[in-house]
Amino acid sequence: MNRRYVVRRLLQVLPAVASILVVTFAVVHAAPGDPVVAVAGESGDEEYYAFMREKFGLDRPLLTQFWTYSTNVLRGDLGVSFVQSQSVVALIAERVPATLLLMGSALVVSTVGGVLLGAMAARRPFGPFDLGVSTGALIGYALPSFWLAQLAMLTIAFRTGWFPIQGMTDARASYTGLAHWADVAHHMVLPSLVLAASEIALITRIARTGILAEMDSDYVRVAQAKGLSPTGALVHHALRNALLPVVTVVGTRIGFLFSGAVLVETVFGWPGLGRLVLSAAQTRDHPLLLGMVLLVAFSLVLANLVTDLIYARVDPRIRYR
Amino acid sequence: MSTPASATADLEGGAPPSGLALPGGGPAAEAEAPHRWRAAVRRFLRHPAGMTGLVLTLLVVVTGVLADVISPGDPFRTVADPLLAPSGTHLMGTDNLGRDVFDAVVHGARTSMIVVLGVSALASTVGLAVGLVAGYRGGWADDLLMRLTELFQSVPRFFLVLLIVALFGAGLDNLIYVLALTSWPTLARVSRAEVLSVRDRTYVEAARSIGATDWRIAMRHVLPNVLPTALVVIALTGSRIILLEASLSFLGLGDPTVMSWGYLVSNANRFLRTAWWMSVFPGMAIAIAVLGINLMSDALNDVLAAYSQTRGKRRARRLRRRRPALAGAGV
């Protein structure tokens, strides 16, 4: 991997982080009313307000305030949720694993499923299967994830009774070890499939286009001329290159997965960030919502960085001129 | 073309002098434009997916406009016993408070429509203005505006909107401002790219050479060529807005004084086992609205792509058959 590329890509993280800090600071600062009340809630007493004003330096110039805010955020101090009176970081950290589990499984399911569907659709472009997949993708795009979650309950869970519909584990039993993970996986089937659904639509489209383009190139034609079957040429030669666009969008998808997960979790009662965001939204718990914005924004910066570095590793053509 | 006056008119119209093949073959902004738009409209009318989208979208728009005629009265009022199944009197049943779900869905269409129209109007004005100025002016203006655009894109939209609505209040007007504030960057970037691709074409140079003002060149020669692509992006933004508004009201951050589809779906959550109709009909309304706009923007992409392309490119495109336009739809 080209060292210059890595260094320059790493340096790009700085302006990205700075933008996030500027935007969130500006939003909180522009909010109507006393910022102390916005951050500390209306129920705090005078002493607490004075403490907060001191801590955030709200009587100082704007730039000093921004500096205080930035150092606090970068040190991992996101304030205290005024509804749950616990530190925002602790609240979020407690819920992150469940959400990451859901997002990770949805990421894997949608990537594998989308590439498979895309490859099958690309075998006969504009054939019946391809048209079916395209139509399905169009409709899949239009369904809001939270409604799809309810539909999955109505049509699959209630009818067949195969899947539990609430929570992450069976409340009546306390499994340990392997049985515990089997229980979690059982609970995870529907939420992760629903979360993966709209992603599958996107990946199918990208994979189909990529595969069609690669199958049309000279090296694939050579492979086929040597006697490889179309499937063999696809698997051994075209697929690696066709998958590059799929890798590129992983970073962007993390953002959609976060918002999708929040919505789907509230329907399935999944004990992740979704419930936390829902209650924060309903109680107007600003520090917690700000924490969520920062968490997702920084995750995106990281995801994009990792994607780009992996991309440069897989594809040696990538480098800065 | 014998008198100087008509030659000037020709040049300003951007029509290439006969016998001279222009690279890129810029479309005429004035003389040919109405004719090209008419051709695009004709192609759209023959586009099955596009027409399906148009019908679905019109269904939602007409329902929204005529909401008070179709379902007179306050959609929040109790009209019957709670949780009645769909029937002749209550087409979509009643909810847990005895409110008519059909009335609610009809009024939800109005809310969605108002939000989409408001946001699209604001976001496309700002997006186009920023894109035009950045692309046409170039230099420091371009740098400044593009840094600003990147700034607005650095924070994930859904969560930023959540925070802003929670901080500023969830009135319908606030909602529209917030969604518009986070919606314009995509359009700005796309239209800037389009401006860059036509800025140095011969017909723009020609207009400049005869002393046309920057304003006139931007409005009459550059903007018409940016519009086709911009329309596609605006349509796609519209369908995202419907989903975003629905998600916000699903989380309880919509305007509580107006009926909204997202609120209806979230309200159905606790009654899924007993009242499927509370979830199915409002959700279907969201899906119809989004699908309608997506189909339309797909079709627009197909018909308008030909607008700004030369004949050779158009032919190559036809040979490649339809390109999946939705690949970039996740914006």
Observed structural traits:
heterodimer; A: 321 residues; mainly alpha; two-stranded antiparallel ribbon; 15 helices; 2 strands; 1% strand; B: mainly alpha; 69% helix; 0% strand; elongated
How would you explain this protein's 3D organization?
The complex is a heterodimer of chains A (321) and B (331). Chain A is mostly helical and 321 residues long. Chain A has helices at residues 3-11, 13-30, 35-40, 46-56, 62-74, 88-123, 128-142, 145-160, 177-215, 218-225, 230-242, 244-248, 250-268, 273-283, 286-314, and strands at 80-81, 86-87. In chain A, strands 1-2 form a two-stranded antiparallel ribbon. Chain A is globular and about 80 Å long. Chain B is mainly α and 331 residues long. Chain B is built from 14 helices and no strands. Chain B is elongated, with a radius of gyration of 24 Å. The model of chain B is unreliable at 1-31, 310-315 and 318-331 (pLDDT under 50). The chains are: A mainly alpha (321), B mainly alpha (331). Chains A and B meet through helix 2, helix 7, helix 8, helix 9 and helix 13 of A and helix 6, helix 7, helix 11, helix 12 and helix 13 of B.
Characterize the largest beta sheet of chain B: strand count, sense, and whether it forms a barrel.
none
Distance from first to last alpha carbon of chain A: 14 Å
Question: What would you call the quaternary organization?
Answer: heterodimer
Question: Ranges of chain B with pLDDT <50 over ≥5 residues?
Answer: 1-31, 310-315, 318-331
The gross shape of chain A turns out to be: globular
- Tell me, rounded to a whole number, the average pLDDT of chain B: 81
Count the strands of chain A?
2
Order of strands, main sheet of chain A, comes to: 1-2
* Low-pLDDT segments, ≥5 res of chain A: none
